[in-house]
User: Fold this.
Amino acid sequence: MELVTTVDEQNNRYSYKRYQGFPFNQEFVGNVGDHLDKIAKREIREDDVLVGVFPKSGTHWLYNTVMMLRSGTLDYHGTPTLMDLQDFNIIEEMSSPRTFGAHMRFRFYPEQMKLGKGKVVTMIRNPKDVVVSLYHMLEEMEDIGFRGTFERLVNIFVSEECMFGNGSWFSWIKDTEDWQSPNLLRLSYEDFLQNTYANVVKLAKFLEVDHDEEFLWSVTENIQFDKLKASHNRKTPPSDRWKHITEDGRLPIYRKGRIGEWKNMFTVAQSEEFDRIYKEKVEQMGLNLDVQFE
Assistant:
């Protein structure tokens, strides 16, 4: 594992762990290689569910929806245990049925999961909104590897040096499209927001949980952004895991959750350049993105 730090002429600072050519968040557990090996060899249970989402793309929203559906309750379930950013043993000690999360690329998931054991759910969000949300989150945290301008973050985001997805957002998406097992459900952030009930029904069917229409509507009401944000602020206790990078040991998870916030951040020139790169990357990688971004 190699530690990489770059500082440009505008004093933008970027640091990450590099392993076998891939960039990893400096919060990734240990020396990367050992932890990846543990993850790859993890024993997966038939009823395991992994919520695997690119950072700032609806992780907590999706996780809490899954948890309500699996538990049959409307309780707020907080923050998922992330197998790339938290100790390996935490998931091992969970009682079944286990639901846990990950931000890293799909290629690093447990081998048994790649072969169809357990289930994986993901959510795809407009990358412009993702990078805006990511920038605001980083501003509220202590240094976890990036300190700089929004323009610099955008340049990192579309490059293969992006530690937040072990490569660019496009490469992260490519991994989801290359996933061969039928145990994956891909959802659209925008569609989930605009057609929440229909997506809750779709998710319940995929998870093979049986609930009546009244309960599914109740889940729909309880996963509205403002309710989740209020619950997070009220119920999430400080965590020793995050106290070195946050003011109170709680991650700044919820901001606005809206569609199209990028319009308030991108300049016209930045937006046009991003669109050019988007088109180029999609064509080069042969991505089959089946979502519409506003």
